[in-house]
Design goal:
mainly alpha
Length: 251
């Protein structure tokens, strides 16, 4: 099977359940391609200027809204609008990347075996196991191991002569609220995918209106990203402090 038409023909012979499973796999594959491209661009420095400018503007509150005017009395310089759109795109991409980075570190420290001199090596190994995971996979792993209801939140601390093991969980007494929290994280994954795969691809780079629409989307999206960054950052800080406290107690 070497060409697209043959693949399409084979897919049509599959039952619906397998087609849906294939669609999920293909989305993960596209996400991995995008992640590899972002990592390559970050490593090569292609995004350094855009990231630095976005972070500087946010730190100094040097931001402004660009609303599409109903009546344009004067011509608008498309380069000004394009620059603003790209700056805000860079800002949101940085925040998506920060969410992904925090998830990798959080998952790395939530399952520790043996709180001793080997802990650092474990954290490095844990992080390496999550390093290439997509944002979607990281969120599902967080759902499975960290975000739980009260019935799953019993202490998971086992001791032996050789050391101890620790698992970190965030428990919720309200199952509806827990499900809403999980769905909100899944929505962030969907937003990232839509931004990259649906909104940017058809962008007309010669259209001021398209840039205004992109700016509006990015400004509406960013507060949600910041809220998740704050919450995940709190989880990570709490977990790290707990590990430090236990290490100090053992010593």
């Amino acid at each position: 099977m070497t060409n697209r038409l043959e693949v399409e023909s084979a897919i049509k012979q599959l039952p619906e359940s397998e087609v849906r499973a294939l669609a999920n796999w293909l989305q993960d594959y596209l996400d991995e391609m995008w992640d590899r491209q972002i990592e390559a661009d970050l490593a090569s420095g292609k995004l350094d200027r855009l990231i630095a400018q976005a972070e500087e503007d946010m730190a100094t509150n040097n931001v402004r809204d660009l609303d599409l005017p109903l009546i344009m009395d004067e011509p608008i310089d498309i380069e000004v609008v394009r620059t603003e759109a790209l700056r805000k795109l860079g800002r949101n991409i940085v925040n998506f990347s920060k969410i992904e980075g925090i998830l990798k570190y959080l998952l790395s420290v939530t399952q520790i075996e043996g709180l001793s001199t080997s802990t650092r090596n474990q954290l490095v190994d844990n992080y390496e196991s999550f390093r290439k995971d997509t944002l979607g996979r990281l969120v599902w792993k967080l759902h499975d191991t960290v975000l739980v209801d009260d019935s799953q939140s019993e202490a998971q601390l086992d001791s032996s002569e050789l050391g101890m093991s620790l698992s970190f969980k965030v428990s919720y007494s309200d199952s509806d609220f827990l499900n809403a929290q999980k769905q909100a994280l899944l929505d962030i994954v969907a937003e990232r995918n839509k931004l990259i795969h649906e909104y940017l691809a058809p962008l007309d780079t010669s259209s001021i209106e398209d840039y205004y629409k992109l700016i509006s989307l990015l400004d509406e999206q960013n507060p949600r990203l910041l809220a998740h960054l704050e919450e995940l950052g709190w989880m990570l800080t709490s977990c790290i402090e707990l590990v430090k406290d236990l290490q100090s107690f053992i010593k």
